[in-house]
User: Fold this.
Amino acid sequence: GGLYVSVGSSCNVCLEEDARRLVALLGRLIGWGAGWRVLDICCGPGRHAQALDAAGLAVTGLDLSAALLRKARQVTAAPLVRADVRALPIRERSMDAGLNLFTSFGYFDTDEEHAATLAGMVGTVRPGGWFVLDFLNAEVVASRIPEGAGGFEGAEGGARLRRYRTAGGRHVVKEIVLADGRRFQERVRLFTVADLAHML
Assistant:
């Protein structure tokens, strides 16, 4: 999954509401019903698993981070699995839907690894089922985030933040420096819709 750094608690309620709205939207688009088996891939702190569970779906959350799964356990009773998304311990074609939400894709070193991971995620879904990938709009990101590292801007809790695209624009980088000096960086591959369609 992606970088999860809390720089303030005021956003948690907003994120939970966003998760509820997204699950409701997906329900209207997909038409899933009570009891559908849904795999929440890279479930993080469990916001979407909580909303899916509340909607009557048989959700299983999966994430590599033990710390995030502990947070998820506080908000959902859904089964939670600790695993690397590159080697899913889920039987092929066993899910009615697979969800990879909140930009939890694009973090690997090579495009081959991304393609194999995407194939593994899709492979868990039964024929006629649904796979949902919530991902960055590369064209919009390219128009709003400059190429090359610039200066840091202030963020909540005394943190500093900067976002930029790498040379050639293949990745977007987010760097956070917390008030206590700890630094975090995440780098996401910017796939276009055509790139994703080709891999799928």
